[in-house]
Write a structure and sequence with these properties.
The complex is a heterodimer of chains A (105) and B (440). Chain A is mostly helical and 105 residues long. Chain A has one domain: Orthogonal Bundle (Cytochrome Bc1 Complex, Chain D, domain 2), CATH 1.10.760.10. Chain A contains 6 helices and no strands. Chain B has 2 domains: 185 residues, FAD/NAD(P)-binding domain (3-Layer(bba) Sandwich), CATH 3.50.50; 143 residues, FAD/NAD(P)-binding domain (3-Layer(bba) Sandwich). The chains are: A mainly alpha (105), B alpha/beta (440). At the A-B interface, helix 1, helix 2 and helix 3 of A face helix 3, helix 10, strand 22, strand 23 and helix 11 of B.
Chain lengths: 105, 440
């Protein structure tokens, strides 16, 4: 019984760890790092409108887009080029993973 | 915490029901951790938040998101909060007054915040206690103040509360905003609208310049022979190059800016005669006069003992806890947080950092590293938007603007870029209001 419980808990732990978007930053840190994004993209990046939502989008596509903003390679940029320059590549990658992991519904 | 009113009792039981529900919902997934999840129904700390604007409402919500076992009580006198952002669009005829007001249903019903519509009248920091004007006494483990600004009624000779009934400031959205709008609407074609802008620091650095833009938009349509004049106590202002480029492009010579060096500083207001006097003795008698006066931190911050000689609130950069009084956190326009401006966006960003720090302290963890962004859009006309952005971190114990980040929209940009930023301005307002109050 104890063993079964151990296996069950371990399985849950694995799921819990996989749910973490970033290996470098814990959940509380990611919540703060991503906090200001909500001011234009809505809580958890779920707001659709003129400003696009972030929740549930492809991690690779978001990371590539953030890097293109940062390096002035995105000709459509208005404000995100100025904002992306304030973050390291690692932080941008973690933010992309954070929003990709959020269920948009 | 006293729970005298039946309304509050209902809110409390509803919150507990919500917590129990969420704990139950979590059970199948986190079976192994059930005991710690269930303990969420027991409070791990009490936070009182004073002020239901961008800073306070956001702090209340994000405390509950961080940990639903934190008891959060929000104290805000108004049933509906009218935002300063987009109040200029109301003046310009682009928005209804209702559309810039927001309520507290989501905080109460979805997040389990106890919302008390009363005024905080006293803070006893030694005993960790807040008294409200209806006699309610609230005990706290941590207090968050988001009091916004108060007008310095001694800042300009002749400009007191009574004068503001004739000559509005409209720098707190509400009845003052409606008064100013009615005066603009009553003005004859060919009249002069004059705004007087204060020296730094003040709430919303680009605000006066967006306001004259929106007034000019209204006048251009309805009273095209009118004139708009800004008397400024400064020689430069936020997004200056962009505003001046936009004014010329959209309004020609309708808007005139008079800098400090050109005798723009107002030293006396005569409300009865709608008259202002500048430093070097020039008298102006416009048809509509809008005085944006000098400001200071909201009154309750003074009562709590968190303000310094400047009238503003020094805070610890990492957490926004007061530098002067333990366990009191202050966010928003009341704080000294330069290089962050006094904006609704920054108030929200600061509130999230403070909420995370408080949750961490209750849980015995280190506070996460702070991150803040600011983005301020201003509308020159309905399809002409400009912006300033900043990214902020703490370095060597100071808030810094991250090098090579942030800045303003490019000058000389094509109309398509201005149109896109005007759309994003509206998108920003919907998103931040959804994030703060749940109503876009």
């Amino acid at each position: 019984m104890n063993r079964l419980r151990f296996v069950f808990s371990t399985a849950l732990l694995v799921i819990a760890v996989q749910a973490h978007a970033s290996e470098t930053y814990d959940d509380a840190q990611m919540a703060v790092m991503a906090g200001s994004c909500a001011n234009c993209h809505g809580t958890d990046g779920k707001m659709a409108g003129a400003v696009p939502p972030l929740a549930g989008r492809s991690q690779a596509a978001m990371e590539a887009q953030l890097l293109s903003f940062k390096h002035d390679e995105n000709t459509q940029a208005t404000v995100m080029n100025r904002i992306a320059k304030g973050f390291s590549d690692e932080e941008l990658s973690a933010l992309a993973a954070h929003y990709a992991a959020i269920n948009p519904n | 915490m006293s729970t005298k009113t039946s309304k509050q009792a209902v809110s409390l039981s509803r919150r507990r029901a919500l917590q129990t529900l969420s704990a139950a919902a979590a059970l199948p997934v986190l079976g192994g951790f059930a005991p710690s999840v269930l303990s969420a129904t027991q409070s791990i700390g009490r936070v009182v938040v004073v002020g239901g604007g961008f800073g306070g409402a956001t702090a209340a919500k994000y405390l509950k998101i961080a940990n639903p076992a934190i008891d959060v009580t929000l104290v805000e006198p108004a049933l509906r909060f009218y935002t300063c952002p987009f109040s200029n669009l109301f003046l310009g005829g682009l928005r209804t007054f209702d559309s810039i007001s927001h309520g507290y249903d989501e905080l109460r019903d979805r997040y389990g915040v106890v919302v008390l519509h009363a005024m905080a009248s006293e803070v006893d920091s030694e005993h960790h206690r807040v008294t409200l004007n209806d006699g309610t006494v609230l005990d706290y483990d941590r207090l968050i103040l988001s009091p916004g600004i108060d007008i310095r009624w001694d800042g300009i000779e002749g400009y007191d509360e009574e004068a503001a009934e004739e000559v509005p400031h409209a720098w707190k959205a509400g009845a003052q905003t409606e008064l100013l709008k009615s005066q603009i609407e009553s003005m004859d074609d060919g009249g002069v609208f004059m705004l007087t802008a204060p020296a730094n620091p003040f709430r919303c650095p680009p605000g006066p310049y967006e306001r004259v833009s929106m007034v000019a938009h209204y006048l251009k349509q309805h009273k095209p022979r009118s004139k708009v004049i800004i008397l400024d106590a400064k020689d430069s202002f936020s997004k200056q190059g962009l505003f001046q480029e936009g004014w010329q492009a959209v309004y020609g010579d309708m808007i005139e800016w008079v800098s400090l060096s050109n005798d723009g500083k107002v030293i006396r207001v005569d409300a009865a005669n709608r008259e202002v006097e500048t430093e070097f003795g020039e008298i102006h008698r416009p048809d509509v006069l809008n005085v944006v006066p000098p400001q200071k931190a909201g009154w309750i911050a003074v009562r709590a003992g968190v303000t310094d000689a400047s009238g503003w609130v020094p805070v610890k950069p990492d957490t926004f806890e007061s530098q002067l009084v333990k366990d009191i956190y202050v966010v928003g326009d009341a704080t000294i947080a330069g290089p962050m401006p006094k904006s609704g966006f920054c108030a929200s960003a600061q509130a999230k950092v403070a909420a995370a720090a408080i949750a961490a302290s209750f849980e015995g963890r280190e506070s996460p590293d702070p991150y803040w962004i600011n983005t301020c859009y201003s509308l020159i006309s309905p399809d002409y938007g400009i912006s300033v952005a900043g990214v902020y971190r703490v370095q060597d114990g100071e808030i810094i603007s991250v090098p090579d980040s942030g800045g303003v929209s490019p000058t000389g940009a094509p109309a398509s870029v201005r149109a896109r930023e005007a759309e994003y301005a509206v998108g920003w307002y919907r998103a931040i209001c959804q994030d703060t109050w749940g109503s876009a």
